[in-house]
Amino acid sequence: MDDQLALRIKLFRESGQVRPEVAAFVTAELDALGAEGRTVTEETAGTLTSHLMMALTRLLNGEPISEFPTDSEITAELAGHPDAVARARAVSVRAASELGAPLPDSEINFLGLHLALLDQNSPPRHET
Fold this sequence. Notes:
- The chain is mostly helical.
- Helices cover 70% and strands 0% of the residues.
- It has 6 helices and no strands.
- Helix 1 (3-14) runs parallel beside helix 3 and helix 4 (71-78) packs across helix 6.
- The radius of gyration is 14 Å and the shape is globular.
């Protein structure tokens, strides 16, 4: 993670927009993505970071997260990115376990789109 992305997280946390545990959770997720070889910078992951922090904060605050009218289009777009969808679902499972805040399907879809874009902006990874 680059300094600018770390600063984004710090500003969200210090301004009280997100809880410290949400900032820590998102930081750990971004660190894991970086360790897997993805390019995690302000440019490539800034919107992913903000979206995930705010979604988790809304869930922890008991605020409803409604379905989006574009969910069917997003689902269709994600059909070509099964790894991103699987990763988004895994993030939701960890969020449920660590924060008590599982992401609803619409948020998993948006996270999947962010992750697919991150993959497109990262060097190819070679599985062994």
